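Quick question, first post here. What does this chain look like in 3D?
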Amino acid sequence: MDARMAYDNLGAAVSDLEARRATSIAVAPGHGLLAALWRRKTIFSAIFITILGAVVAALLLLPVQYMATGSVIVAEQEPGDNNSSAVWAQKAGDPADMESQLLIIGSSRVLKAATASPGVLELALQDCAAGKGIGALLEKLGRRSGCDKLSEDADALVEFVRPRYSIGNVGRSRVISISYQSTRPEIAQKMANALISAFLEDQRANLSSGRQHAADWLWAEVHRLETELRDDDGKIQEYKRKKGLARGTNALIDSERLTSLTQQLSAAEATRAEASARFKEITANKGKGLADSPAVLASRSVSDLKQQLTMIEMRIASAQSTLGDRHPAMRGLEQERDIAQRRLAAEIAGVAAAAKRNYDAANSLVASLRAKVEAAKTEVGDAMIDQGSIETLVHGVDMKRRQYSELYKRASELDADRRVLNGSTRLVGLAELPNQPYFPKKLPFLAAGLTMATLLGATAAILRDRFDKSLRGSAELAGLPGDAPCVELPHFRSARPRLFGMPARRDRALPSKALIELAESDEAAQRALFEIYSSARLGEEKGSRLIAVTSPARGDGKTFLTLILAHFAAAMGHRVLIVECDRANPCFESALGLERGPGLLEALDSTAPLRDCVTATDWRMLDALPLGASAKAAPPQIGKRIETVLKATRDYDLVLLDCPPADALDARLLARRADSILLCARAGRCSAEEALAASEGLIACGGRLLGVVVNMAERDEPPFSKRSSRATA
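> Answer (accepted):
Ran it through. Tokens below.
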């Protein structure tokens, strides 16, 4: 009685909890999407982690890109140009003109001009080699990479650099920004400046086209005159070479040669006159004595010999006063005197002969030089005639040279004027070396990846939840026949610690005793069991003492429902017997820890009395009748022969039959013999249509539906939503 009173109070509490739950749901109905995300959190987590991992991998693997940006300004008036028209003034800042300038900058013509600049091809090849990716693999396999085409095909080079350039106007201003994106900052800077320079040069070229044509004509004339001057100079030099009109230091070589011969002749005549005078002097003094001749006395050797002879004479004179004439010393001095006299005579004769030879040589030289001078005079006369012949050619060359100088000066001035012109576009600033990467930027990249992962994960989870036709809760079974209740049994999890506030993973193989203990401590499970227990009306005349428990398919948890319902009724003070009728999947012995022995099959075959087949469990007031030891040799239908066994269970207040799935013949036979049927459908596996079809089929077989239990139902709201609901309540 105490137990019954306690559960009467539980019934009142259940009603109160149901009212409060309905109130809380009515107050806070806005958690449908959160509930869907919570139900499909596995799909959401998988997609979220996959996309976020892909974003992080892309952030680590993608090459870092740098962008260098320069700018120009369009439609500015030329400095000092006072003749600009009103049309030009209206054109400044016109959006159509800005668009045309943007198209010009990005045109193939300007891009080809930029890529033709010195060093641009090498920079493009470096950029291609740095970012070619799979091209390196192709090169290792022996195939030709796409970078090789850039140096051979100008169009391929333009198509390579075009997507890396970014051209656009800055806001509503007349400033155009030109950017280049590359994996290396110095390449980005130089390539951006190359396009800016090419565009400015193109604008200047368009403005100075007239000057350009004039300068081109002038340069052509300059080159023609230069060629003619070179040819005329060659002809003049060839003529001079043939005529011998080569110039010396100050004049023609013939004139300088004549001057030189004349100077030599004068010097030779002076030398001959001097030799003649010396020779005549020696000849004139020959009778008087050559020793006293001035020409002879001018000789150093003669002077030395005469001085030596004088010294010997003095020694002889000194020796005569002391020595005799026959003294040996006197004779030696006399011999020495004789030798000196002979040497003096020989030297005087040599001087006379030398004077004669000098005179003869000077005379011959004068005669030879005179002949040469006469020949040189003839040659100089001829050369002067030839020199006069080429004066006309030289004059013509001088005129062409002056014309060449004037044309060259004018062409240079036109080129200078053309380069000074700025056109309708002026430089604002060249691109500087970028220091920070343009792509990928870590924080925006991660934020975009996080947003995309959240949106895609939430979208996939919500779509999967929307298109999922499986059963979720009792509300989907509103079409049950009669007033049969529909309750929910929650999905039980072990009491493991949570990781970062998230529930632990589902336990798919908890022991039966542990499941029963979890169900006993769960408030929602106890409410559901109490509602089924109340519907059975045990002990009343129209109550259900014999209940068949089945399900639409295997794995829906009908055995678990049988065990916890039997335990609940036993706890209410009723004697309960559970009978295992599913011969395809016997599990009572393992679930309840029973010893193997006789069971239902032995009782049906009368091989063992029923009292020996029924086994007491660990719970008070609860007995079990397992399938038995001869399960392999089970008869085709248990439902046809179970009538006698069921009649022998009159001592029990409640008999629960654990039947096969509802589509089996045994289940339909047992449903007809039972007082009522309890259908168990698993949430997330069985659909509402299948559950309704199974219930209608059982009723059509003659059974009475006691109720439907939605097993392993997920709570519609996540834990944080439930806490907020409780706080609101």
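The two ends are 35 Å apart (CA to CA).
Confidence is low (pLDDT under 50) at residues 1-31, 79-84, 495-509, 723-729.
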